[in-house]
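Record type: monomer structure entry
Structure origin: computed from sequence
Chain ID: A
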Amino acid sequence: MDIRQAIIIISILVFCFALGKASFVGAAEPNQVFINLDKQAIVSGFTVKSLTKQLWIPIFPNQFKTPVSVFLKEESAPGNLPQNTKPVSAFYNYEVKSQTLESNNLLLSFASDSFSGFNKSVYIYNKVKDKWIKLPTKIVDSKKNILQANVSVQSGHAVVLETIPEKWTSAAAVVIDRKTGKQLYEKDAGEVRSIASLTKLMTALVFLENKPKWDTVVTMKSTDFVGGSTLLVNAGDKLTVKDLFNATLIGSKNNAVSALVRSTGLTEKQFVAAMNEKAKSLGLMKTKFVEPTGLDSRNVSTASELAIIAKKAFENRDIATATTKEFYQVKTINNGKLIWVKSTSKTILDRDLDIVGTKTGVIDQSGYNLVTSAKKGDHELIALVLGAEQMMNYEEVYFLLKKHL
């Protein structure tokens, strides 16, 4: 079970607990809930819900040592909202007070059908600074539209805000229907651009055509350490081809790519030639590779042609499975060293999308690139942006997918 699955399961358990325990034990006025929790409720735990059932505050078993009171009320927004945001939940005034003024972090859980579109985050209002503060927010259940954030203050105002980009930053973009190949949106999709680590999708396709054995052991060489994002192993360490493949697609590790290419028995020159032949076989006239990692800016393509490569890549189960993992653990064979690899696509994987494949790419000459395939029912799309500003590649691909799915 990966970390994301564990969080979702815990969150669902919290909500199931809430459904079994929540009831009014205090006074309720229009738009307001006030509940006193006695010692028994503190020991067993209790979840307080707003009248609209949009905001949930779980008090976990033994989280407090003495009885507490919980106050929730819908109110108008204090202060001004941050620029380029709009509310997608009601504004809530909340307070959790214990008899002995205990200090505990609270979990704010928001549930709403309106949590779709751009990036969503929970915000709390800071009276002293007269500003809304963005909290680290998790989409813990995209089907039930549940957002959660931990907060260290036990009273204040909370809301879910949607961030809308000030401007479109990508130099090129495209959206295609994965089944039909029909183009649903394009922006300079025929313009030739440097593609950075989106190169690795073609690298993975050519590698798999060499029918690898996943348990093959490869010894890292000093020549594998070509720069950029690097798997934290040393020359002489031994890794399986499976671990190298996952490190290539999940963490975009360039030394893993070099070792993976060597494992095929081909020279890098021969491997790159195969990549270019594969591009030609797919009918791609503007795509060219000079090396397999994406570090070289002379690896070029267009948004339209890259969408075709992505379509082919995500049809492969091994590539699709690897690119949708948020974390992966690599283990060296020679000394048992464990290295966690975090997905470069985690920001898009954490959204309320059913993603079937994704890959990032960035070097100075290319800007921030991202291709993502997502589905809704029988409808499946591929959205791709090239040359976006930092972090905006995630926002703009997300917007394109939500708009067209």
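Annotation 1: The longest strand covers residues 354-363.
Annotation 2: The chain has two domains: 3-163, 172-404.
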